[in-house]
């Protein structure tokens, strides 16, 4: 089960760190122009905060388990990312956009949280 957790968390970490870094690094207007219309509904600092939460959560999926320092933080990070993605689903549904990627990431994050708690505890 530990191997499955590492594979899942590795893939999730890549997705969240990449998406979050893009939100942090690019201006809101560039995000909207690239197809992230939802960003137009939020202030620029809020978009940056969402990106930072994704980056920190992605790092939290890997680093605590890798170092052995407070490994309980790994499933907590997965649970927090699940909450972030539930918010993303709500925004996409409200805007009548495709919410499938957000739903998939929410479900995978929830699975990571459950498996993580089973492995760590």
TrEMBL record:
It is found in: Membrane. This is DoxX-like protein. The chain crosses the membrane at residues 6-25, 72-91, 103-120. The keyword Membrane applies. It comes from Microbacterium trichothecenolyticum. Keywords: Membrane, Transmembrane, Transmembrane helix. It is a multi-pass membrane protein. InterPro entries: DoxX (IPR032808). GO terms for cellular component: membrane. It holds the Pfam family DoxX_2. The keyword Transmembrane applies.
């Amino acid at each position: 089960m530990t191997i499955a957790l590492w594979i899942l968390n590795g893939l999730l970490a890549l997705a969240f760190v990449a998406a979050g870094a893009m939100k942090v690094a690019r201006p809101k207007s560039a995000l909207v122009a690239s197809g992230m219309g939802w960003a137009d509904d939020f202030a620029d600092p809020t978009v940056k905060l969402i990106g930072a939460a994704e980056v920190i959560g992605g790092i939290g999926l890997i680093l605590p388990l890798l170092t052995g320092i407070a490994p309980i933080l790994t499933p907590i990070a997965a649970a927090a990312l699940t909450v972030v993605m539930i918010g993303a689903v709500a925004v996409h549904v409200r805007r009548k956009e495709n919410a499938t990627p957000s739903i998939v990431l929410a479900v995978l994050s929830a699975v990571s949280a459950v498996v993580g708690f089973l492995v760590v505890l």
